[in-house]
Amino acid sequence: MLQTRVGALELASPLLTASGTFGHDPAALRFLKTEDLGALVLKTVTPEPRHGNPAPRMAEFTGGVLNAIGLENKGLAYWRDHVAPDLAALTVPVVANAGGHSVSDYVAMTEAFDAMAGVAAIELNLSCPNVADGIQFSTEVAALKEVVAACRKVTPKPLWVKLSPNVASIVPFAKAAESAGADALTVCNTLIGLLVDWKTQKPMIANGTGGMSGPAVKPLALRMVWDSARAVSIPVVASGGASTAADVLEFVVAGATAVQIGTASFRRPDAISAIALELRELLTENSTSLEELRASLRWPHPVSC
Ligand SMILES: Cc1cc2nc3c(=O)[nH]c(=O)nc-3n(C[C@H](O)[C@H](O)[C@H](O)COP(=O)(O)O)c2cc1C
After folding, report:
1. Any idea which of 132-146, 155-169, 198-212 has the lowest mean pLDDT?
2. 3-class DSSP state for residue 102?
3. Domains in the chain: ranges and CATH
4. What is the best residue among 17, 21, 22, 69 to mutate for testing ligand 1's pocket, by most ligand atoms within 8 Å of CB?
5. Which of 55, 45, 39, 107 is nearest to 79 (CA)?
6. Cβ(244) to ligand 1 under 6 A?
7. What is the pLDDT of residues 3-61, one digit of tens each?
8. Contact, 184 vs 237, CB < 8 A?
9. How far is CA 39 from the centre of its chain?
10. Angle at CA of residue 289, ends 285 and 295, nearest 5°
11. Is 188 a known active-site residue?
12. pTM, entire model
């Protein structure tokens, strides 16, 4: 009932983990029933180890969380030796997520993931708002196109491009990624925000600004999914604020093929299995299917510019 295809990738479910919210390796899978999870999207890996930003790096607000982890990870060599060998035995497809600061960083990561048997698809994180360099890949169409085209040349594996919401319109970026050879888009990364402690008169996280995620960003992510899905013919994977089965179906109606669950897993590590259970119930009760609902949004008036 929940089977879904993202391009060439067959998934048991449309529910995926969101990069950086479900661990650096498959250890957190123990919280989920594997039939509920479409793919395990792992934390961004960069060519070199990164310590990330100073603490505090996360703060909560009513509608979600603000984070500025800063892509902390142990680097590609560690990942190749200690994480990759365990991936091939998993029954769930793994999407490895690549980060970097230059075209050559992204190409090196893509080549490395391409060579790993346990990696089914590669997601390019072009859109982390919490690192100083590399921001051009999510905010300049030409830079995005160049990096995606360069990565496309070095892998036949499904290549997903994770876009930023921190732009005036996501459409030119979605189109550029598709024309440069992306197989799917992930829409979208976190939204730059600020939380303030009025008593100390300081930002709540040491980086100052951070990336917003959780329920508060859902309307924005829905709009971006709707805009992207109409602009391209490759699948759109939604990311931003989904925490219930109804949220997931809203993204599907707006045009998403699959939906990543991020912040909701912090509140409840088995959130994906809980949502999958509810999703099966909702589809049965309403005698409908993911295919029937996909991109079925009925706009109230003709869409104009
Ligand atoms: C603590 C934290 C760390 C994250 N780390 C990454 C990361 O390493 N790479 C990435 O592409 N996205 C990262 N994200 C963004 C999530 O993958 C996701 O796109 C975003 O949180 C929106 O979805 P959500 O509202 O379901 O959490 C991170 C988000 C959070 C909250």
Report:
1. 132-146
2. coil
3. 4-293 (3.20.20.70)
4. 21
5. 45
6. no
7. 999 999 999 999 999 999 998 889 999 999 989 999 999 999 999 999 999 999 999 99
8. yes
9. 11
10. 125
11. no
12. 0.97
